[in-house]
Every structure is written in structure tokens, then in C-alpha cells.
Amino acid sequence: MADLHPFVEKIEEVPEAFREFYTERSGKFYLNVAGRDGWALEDVRGLRNAHAQVTSERNTLRDTAKRFRERIGGERTPDEIADALNRFDELVKIDPEKQADELATKRLEAHEARIRAKFDATIKKDWEPLKAELEDERSFTRGLLIDTEARTALLAAGADPDHVDLLVERLAKSCRVKVGDDKKRVVEVLDEFGNPRLGEGPMKQAAGDFRAKYPALFKGSDASGSGARGGQGGGGGAGRKYSDAEVNAMSQQEYEKARTEGRI
Known about the structure:
mainly alpha
């Protein structure tokens, strides 16, 4: 059986029975072959050349990489290699006589920064519980200072000892503790706008205001005298007297109502 060539220079080279399967292109006659399942008649010279070139480049890169790994002492990532080269470039540019001190300073600063960061982390860990405890102590101290000054002023103004705790609790809501320039803590009494009261003896003034506002809770007041208490069966209002515990638990509105009814 005759072999069919992919192309011929002259059609006469092909047996006459097969010439109909050839087509003339660019001065040559090419065998007509329809592609199927990946098979086709193609000019593969370009592919062979490209394959040979790629194979050569691959072998060159493989040999270069092998020599490079041997020089750098094992496997390293591209990022590690880039960092190493950057450090190398920096070292090459250093003039030992001129930059030795600068390099030593940078290393010392970096070492100090690492120590400081470690120290700060340790301090923060130990300080947080102490800070919370200190804040609790400060809050307690502020409350104690306010309660002490408020109680003293109210008792001096004639507050009934049986009701002074209720008065202290209400007066303390309008007080705060401020640290002065001399580092001493001072209790300030605030007005209705939240500003410190001015003048001499703000706490004493506040106690006087409370005496006028809550006369039934102070001794020697007309509202708490025998006339008021004797009115329980007359015009002073009906009902039993409230106990101290009940008075202390009252809201401002309940207290005013009870006082108006003469039940305090």
C-alpha cells in the first residue's frame, strides 16, 4: 500500500487514485485531513522549537536554583531571600568608620523598645486590678468625706438624729469632691445647674436650705412640735405616723405628701 505524505511539491508524486485528497496552497499540495478527537494534521515544527527552548530554560533555572540553595544554606522563601538581600545592600553601603556608632545606636534603640514593650505589658497586667481597687477606695473616700461634712452641717442645723441619714443621703446627691491645687480634697456643694455654690460655708447654707425644705426632720421646728403631732386626731391629717425606716424608703414626692398630712 502506498504511503501518503502530508504535502508534496508536485501532485504527480501522489498516486493518481489519491490526488483528489490533496489541495494546492502556496505552491504546494497538502493532504486534506479532518481533525477528530484531538488528532489533526498540523505543522509542529514551531511547537518542537518552543518545547526545546522551554526545556533548555527550565534546565538552566533548575541548575541556577540548585547552586543558589547551596550558597544560601538550604530552602528559603522569596520573602526571606528579599529581606536578606535588602539587609546585604544596607550593610554594603555602611562605612564602618562613619556609621559604626549609628548602627550601634539603632540596635540599642531596638533592644530598648523590645524591653519597654515587655515591661509595659507586664505593668499593665499587674496594674489593672490595682487600678480598679484604687478607684473603689477613692469612691469610698469621696463618699465618706461628703457624708461626714453633710452630717456635721445637718446636725449643727438641728437635724433630728433619727432622720439625719435620710437628709445626708439627699444632700450628698448635690455634692462632689474636688482635688485642689494643694492636692487636698475639698467637698463642693452644687446648685441646681450643677455649678459649685459660692460664698462662705456652702455646706452650712445647704443644711439651712434643707431645714426650710424639710422642717419636720429637724428638732425645734414648728412643723414637728406638739401642735403638729397633736393634730393626728384633728386637722393635722388622719392616719398613723410613719416609722423611721418607712421615711428613709420614701421618694421625694411621697415624703412631701406624708409631711403635708402630718404623718412624719
